[in-house]
Structure formats: structure tokens, C-alpha cells
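Input sequence (495 aa), recorded before submission:
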Amino acid sequence: MGGFFGVVSTEKCAAELFYGTDYQSHLGTRRGGMATYCEEKGFYRAIHNLENTYFRTRFESELPKFEGKSGIGVISDTDAQPMLFNSHLGRFALVTVAKVNNIDEIADHLLQENMHLSEFSSGKINPTELIGLLIVKGKDFVDGIENVFRTVKGSCSMLLLTENGIIAARDAWGRTPIVVGEKEGAMAATSENTAFPNLGYETSYYVGPGEIVHLTASGMKQLRKPNKRMQICSFLWVYYGFPTSSYEGKNVEDMRYHTGRVMGEEDETEVDSVGGIPDSGIGMAIGYSAGHNTPYQRGISKYTPTWPRSFTPANHEMRSLVAKMKLIPNKDMLRGKRCLFCDDSIVRGTQLRENGKVLKELGAKEVHMRVACPPLIYACPFVNFAASKSELELITRRVIKDLESHSNTVTLLTDALADNQNVTISPERLKAYATTDSPEYKAMVREVARRLDLDSLKFSKLETIVEAIGLDKCQICTHCFDGSSFYSLEEENEQ
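Predicted structure, C-alpha cell format:
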């Protein structure tokens, strides 16, 4: 996914920029970058690969080079950033959190207009450079950013570091957040306001969908009013967000606790202990424990000295190994117990299947799983959610494919038929599987539980997570659960 942080101050900003950007590290693992502006020396930028190390390690020794009182930084799962531009609008640096589905189409149009693309990331077009070129086509920064909103199919939030401060522009549908913080003599904008407390900032404003604001050390000025409609990603609360972060005024940990408590109150399954799969399953597990009146115990712990955050290698086999190595089960907390664990979601199911096997080998009498969100059935076209190349990487879609292929088969013995590409599943049939407690939904959940060797499996209801977030359903994107983002990619550019 990715996250950014920007600061403009009356004092030197390098240290705050460094730590503020580092607080976005849970959002990305591929690239990190920072840029500062100094009146005497101009812009300075550095970009480093983070696939085999951490942001702090790569940038700490370079801090003295970042001079000036304003700067932006980014942790990215996609492209190398920030990008630097010198245009008729002036000089500026740009960072983005974006998913550009029509990147090739936009690139072709730009090339036909005699513009050029110079930056490539892993042999591909750099989306941040592309967005910068769309901006410089405008008569001013606001006009250029609106051009991005009109053109990009997907999502794009951004920070621009100019010679006169920072311009923050949130995605036209608000799919990803921007939060503004302030303290005496400084303003900051960030994806995750978990960066604010230790840096002395108070959250002062949640930038609205499509809203553009200009930050200086003395305050904030609105350049474009927010759009009336919003589709913020619900998965921010379920998985992406750090526990201390808030979006639209709703705290991440509070949402997860609420979701778990509701499920615990409704669940009649008898178990001896409740635990969370670290880290994002812990908040739900604590809530479930309270709602179910069952002790919370850490049957699985994350080894934080070398795995402080999610690390996602590109290679699938390596991803599976890393996922296994960073989570350590506690045999003494498992032996002879009916154990229930909470997790944020089930994507491929590979890690969970391995964990379930290990837990029983270590003596767990039963292993039950409760999931903080509904089953993931649809790939996300709006946010860079995962490295998945196909919806068939989702365990639910593989199961659905087999169930539809063998609708008359009572018990499926293998998931090998998931590779059968000749089976077409209609939108109506997918909707049936996405409908809580429908016969199709129940069959899917039972089969997923069987393949993962779980004694029981339950998912949170969509109504529960909407209630826990506290926004109207029409303001939240739930596409990955029910395929019903309130607005389509075709509609999104019409605001």
C-alpha cells in the first residue's frame, strides 16, 4: 500500500521528517524516500530500497544532508519516490499513495503529447512520475491535481513539497486518508496519525475526499473543498492501520475491539482460551475475550527483535517462510486446550493452514478461528492491497470455483481443481457466496475450514464492521467483501 508524512516548520525539520516517515513503515516494505527544501540550497532527495532492511537503518546516517524547514517522506510498496519536478508551476517534490489501473492508457496519451517518461521502477512506468506529469499540465497546482482526479482510475492521495510549503490532496473518493496535525510553529500531514503523539502534534483535521489544502508553518489554507461523496477503504481499520491511528475520527484499535466483542457475545462455541494472531488480530481477540467471557492468552507471539513489522518478499515461497518464522507458538499455553484465535483476514490461507497444523502438533486439543472481516471474495481495484495477480489466489475463490464445478458433490477432497480455468462464475453466483448465512456462504466457509484443518471457522458480519467503523455504509468501500463499492471505476471520475 504505502504511507507518507510531511512537515513544514519554523525550525529544521529533518529529525521530525525522519521519525514521522518511519511511523508509516507498517504500510510498505519496498521503497523509502525523503525530500527537503532549503531556501539556500534548494531541494535534496534520497530514495533507498527497503526489501532487505528497515527505513531507519537506511536513512539515519544520511540525516545531516536533509536541510531546511519543510520536507516530505514516503514508504512505498510500489515505486521509487519522491519525484522531483521543475515546471511552469515551479519546482516541487511529489509523493503518492496510489493505484493507477489505467497507467498504460495515460502514458500513451502523454507520449502522444510529446511528453516523456524517464523514471522506471523494476522496468515499469513509475506511477508517481506519471501523476506529476498530469499535475504540470494544469494552469496551477489545484487545476493540475484536479486533472489527476479526472484522469486516474483507481485512487491517488498525494503530498507536494513546494518552495512555499506543502500541498496535501486526498484521493477524490477518499479511499486512502490524509490527517493534519499541528503544534506551535509547525504543521504536518500524514497517512497515519500514529506519527503525531511522540512528535508533539495534535490531530487537528481530517482532509476530505478530493479536498486540497496548503500547509505552512503558521497554519492551513483550503484550496479546494471536499467532495460530497466518500468511499474510504474499510480494510484500513481491519488490517492496514496501526492500533493508535484514527481515520475519520474512528480509532483503529477501538474498531477492532468492537468487532471482536460483538462476535464473542454472539458465539456459543465452547473454548478454553482466546488469542490473537499478531499483530492485527490482537485487538479483535481482546474484544472477543471480553464478549465471550473467556480468558485471553498469548498462544502465539511475534518475534519482534528481527520482525518488527510485516515483511513481504516478492517470492511466494519466501513469503510463506517469513510468515512462519516470525510467529512462535507457545506450547505451554496450547497443550490440551480448546484454543480460539482471532485474525484480521484470510487471503490465500497458506499461513493459517501451516499455523493450524503446528498448533495441533504442539498439543492443542481444538483450533478455532474467528476473522475480523467477512470473507475476501473480490480483488480490490481501488487500493494496492496485496501482491496477488489473480482472484484465484484468494482461498475463497478457489473454493467457490470447486463448489461451482462440482455442485452435486457433497464432500470435496482436494482443492487441486482450483486451476480449472474453464469454470465461469457469474456475478449473481458470487453475490450468493458473499451473502452472510446463505446456503452458498455456509458451504464455502465449511470447505475453507476443512482445507485449513480448523475445528470451526466464523467471519465477522459486514453489518458488524460497518457498525464498528461508525460511518454510513455508503461512505465505506466494502468491495473486497461484497463487490459493492458504492461507486464504480467508471463513475468515480464524475464528481
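Checked by second reader. Residues 408-420 have pLDDT under 50 and may be disordered.
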